[in-house]
Amino acid sequence: MVAPRPQPSPILFLGGAGLPEWIWEDVRAELTAKSVVASYPRTSGATLRHYAEAVLEQAPDRSFTIVAHSVGGVVASEIVAVAPDRVDALLGVAASFPTPGTSFLGALPIPERYIVGLVMRLSGTRPPASMIRSGLGTGLAAADIDRIVAEFDPESQRLYRDRVSPRAFPTHRGYVRTTQDREFLPAAQEKYRAELGGTFHRELPAGHLPMLQDPAALTDIIEEFIAEDG
After folding, report:
1. What is the pLDDT of residues 59-108, one digit of tens each?
2. Order of strands across the sheet that contains 64-69
3. Mean pLDDT rounded to a whole number for the chain
4. How far apart are CA 202 and CA 218, in angstroms?
5. Do 195 and 84 touch, CB atoms closer than 8 A?
6. 64 burial level (CB within 10 Å; 0-12, 13-18, 19+)
7. How far is Cα 29 from Cα 75, in angstroms, rounded to an integer?
8. Taking a C-beta distance cutoff of 8 angstroms, is the pair 56, 45 a contact?
9. How many helices (H) and strands (E) does the chain have?
10. How far apart are CA 13 and CA 49, in angstroms?
């Protein structure tokens, strides 16, 4: 008798800043693994540790695989620091992975870190609609762009400014670069990929939201990543 193939660990999706959970719907519908999309705390003073703790309360029981997008990589880093035994594997999708002791803002290239930091101090963490359309909206259908603009929910400034704790990433980890990205340029993504490490590296010819622009291709990559862990 052939032994049944072990079930993959469930997936915890971490989205980018301000983005609604529905952006993952098409990807989740085609995955073989069970999954959940975490929501972030919506209090203005929430710290990075608060984000990690809130996500862990929503995470599948026992261990899971994280698929982290954009600033979700920062949250994933803190989760790994807080509960390393819970994380089986980690896949970054155009995600930020600052070095320990560095914040999301601190990991941005100069002069972008100073410009973004100043804009946040003056205007908060919700970008103007025009910036959302020209950045996050790259490659998307008009209806999706309109919905993202309408539902964008600003994050706490602490998510961007708090420094990431010392952590050790899981053995199985990988990165998906989005080569047409106007939010995280390829050079920045390469830096984050190198910080994460791992041997699983893939590219998608997409903007910053490949889960909407090409969900089938991203689903295939996630399935491939999961299969390698098995």
Report:
1. 998 999 999 999 999 999 999 999 999 999 999 999 999 999 999 999 99
2. 35-37, 11-14, 64-69, 87-93, 172-178, 200-204
3. 94
4. 10
5. no
6. buried
7. 24
8. no
9. 11, 6
10. 17
Residues, the chain, total?
A: 230
pTM: 0.94
pLDDT in tens, 22-31: 999 999 999 9
Alpha-carbon gap, residue 118 to 8, rounded angstroms:
43
User: Under a CB-based contact definition with an 8 Å cutoff, are residues 129 and 149 in contact?
Assistant: yes
State the pLDDT at residue 102: 96
In this structure, what token pair is assigned to residue 94?
């155009």
Of 197, 91, 108, 94, the closest CA to residue 161 belongs to 108
Q: What φ, ψ does residue 206 adopt, rounded to 5°?
A: -145, 165
pLDDT at 110 over 70: yes
Helix or strand or coil: residue 51?
A: helix
Number of neighbours of residue 7 by Cβ within 10 angstroms: 10
> What residues pair up with 202 in beta bridges, in sequence order?
176
